[in-house]
Write a structure and sequence with these properties.
Elements: E1 12-14, E2 20-22, E3 31-35, H1 42-60, E4 64-69, H2 73-83, E5 89-91, H3 96-100, E6 104-109, E7 112-117, E8 120-124, E9 130-134, H4 142-153
Parallel strand pairs: 3-4, 4-5
Antiparallel strand pairs: 1-2, 3-8, 6-7, 8-9
Length: about 160
Amino acid sequence: MLKTGDLVKDFTLKDQDGNDVTLSSFAGKPVILFIYPRADTPGCTIESCGFRDAFAKLKAAGAVVLGLSRDTVKDQKKFQQKYDLNYPLLADPDMELLKYFDVIKPKNMYGKMVTGVKRTTFLIGPDRRLLHIFEEVKPEGHAEEVLALIKAGKK
């Protein structure tokens, strides 16, 4: 289980265009890694569009935005195009990185227990140290919440 201050391992995943995205390539910048359960579902769409709408402010604050789910590259591409998302969406269909971040959890879905992805955001510092974990994420207004924390840290 990762905790604040831990060094986040370097990773490489494919984005919605099939390009490799590597964490260490963003050295010197804070990285917002927001993990969502499934592309093009209501809560995930609200959260993803929130990051889209706040993207210019987040970029101005020096941050990199990365979305991550267990969807395939193809599904991430459809989601990105449908909502004009302006940042990389990482595909982790094998759930290797999702397991590393410990976000695979049992969920109750209509009275049946299933394994799902817990909506969580990790703020990773310019040195790959974990700065903050947002655990009980509410999709509405989350991007602004992350932006406020980044701005507070720059003071």
